[in-house]
Amino acid sequence: MVINRTIEKVKTFSRNLSLEYKLILFNIFVIVIPVTLIFAFTISSYINYLNDQLITSEFRSISQISSSLDNYLGELYNISLEYTLDKTLFNISKGPSDFDNKNYAVQNYTLARSNMQQIMITHQEILGIYLFCDNGNNYKIVRGNVLLPLNNYKEHLWYIAAKKRPNEGMLFAENVLEGYVDYDAQTLTYIKGINDYLSGEFLGVVMFSIEVDKFESLVELSSNNHNTTIITDNSGRVFYCSDRDKIGKVIINSFFANAVLARNEGYYINNSINGMPIAIFSTTSSYSGYKIVDLLHLNKLFAPINKAKRISTAILIFSVITLILVTVMYSEQLLYPIRKLTNAVEEFGRTSLSVIPVYDTNNEIGILTKSFSAMSQRINTLINREYAAQIKRKEAELSALQSKINPHFLYNTLEMIKSMSEEENFSGIYDATHYLSKILQYSLHFENELVTVREEIASVRYYVKIQQMRFNNRFKVIFDLPPNVLDCKIIKFIIQPLVENSIYHGLETKLGSGVIIISGAIKPDGGLSITITDNGVGISEEDLKIIQNSLKSGINGFIEQQDDDPLLLKNTRVHSNRGFALMNIHTRLQLRYGTKSGLMINSSPNRGTTVTVNIDSINPNYSEEKEEGYHV
Question: Cystine design at 425: which of 11, 420, 437, 514 (Cβ 3.0–4.6 Å)?
């Protein structure tokens, strides 16, 4: 169950993951990780190969040292045998003492010296050759300084040891004649006992003093800063070490003792010297039994390898980072048009109908982007065409309404003229027909879309006079408009329908006389404000809210109406000339001057109504004549 839930969560996460991250993860798993693993495996294999080569090379090196050491010791052994096999030298060691026969001693010395010179010519590493006979004779040839004669040599340990084991060549780690012979260089001493090859009688000792530096070269011992080579006997006494201070000493340090005297030969690593890893290679000479040990300081030895490892690691990290960056950049380049197309589709579906830029490529993404761009262009064109047609249709309807006279007003005026004709009131007929003709003349004047407030007020005056004749002067109209307002240009039929609303909906049902005040002013921001105030019956609070909400909807609310008569308000309680006139004027003002323009209405039942015409920005045309305005 837990596994299934985990798998389901992973699937859900994968489905919801963006295309960009999916592509990046895919490239990481398919390219970055395999390349990293291959590179790391290659480096590891190369390092292991170097380690194996190092171990093989080191074993080959100490084997070569062991072979060279055996060959050299064998050569010294063969030279020492000459004192046994050569009859002249044999007679020297077996004959009478030089102290007994002086002439015989001179002859022996000449023969011995000649032999020794031959050896030293061919062996430059030998600094001195000594022949100590058991009969008391001794001969020498030395490349050093003889300090004292050595007469009691039979009492020395090296002589006693050689006498006990005459068939073995022994190598000592120091100059055994120190104090008697002085050498400028550090030396080793090789000693071999001499026996009578027939009787086995001990005849004496032959000794070679060997210079360490040349011995090192002959045995092919190499010395560098990352290894230490040690040659010891079975007791742990060092007769050669690349660290010369250790020559002649017995190893007592536990680590060196274990490393040098360990019976098991081969290779292993120990961390016992100051915490530093040491590789120990050891072998035993089959000829002499000497132990050859090479101690490699791995930190120094592997310094170039470690440096190469660090460089390889840095290259690996750099390569991984570069691959990831290339993957991200490639993914970004690949997904940029898709992301751009996605954002355009979201924006297109949400608010904007603008056409997105075309991604100019011939691949699948380019074709998809071009197709969507063409589709959005067609949709945008169709919408703009339909919207423009709808606006033009509404403007045409508004233009028709602008020049339309209320038929009820025309009917009532003609009825009033008829009544006056029956009463033979010819002056009244004349005035009424004159006022009506002026109103008709004003409404049919199409040359200019804009008129001055003065021209609009003149038409309103004629309209008011007809209404005053009809209502027997039950109300009066006061015009309070300064000259700068009268010279401003506005669209036609803005004030007259508002005055008509005041008369029919405010004053007609009012008891007593009524008053309508028409005032105006230029606002500080350059706009125009015209106010029509009456003291009529007012509007109920509920109907006032309906009218105000209708006015707030503005142009969009007016255009979007879908009734049979689209210019009527949807609110049934105000489907009257009042609401129609207000909405007509409000919409015309916003179409002409912007949405900040329009009507504001305030009213209180039985206290009257105030309607304010706000025009956001207008350039007044001031008359050079100083007029006092209209005050009626």
Answer: 420
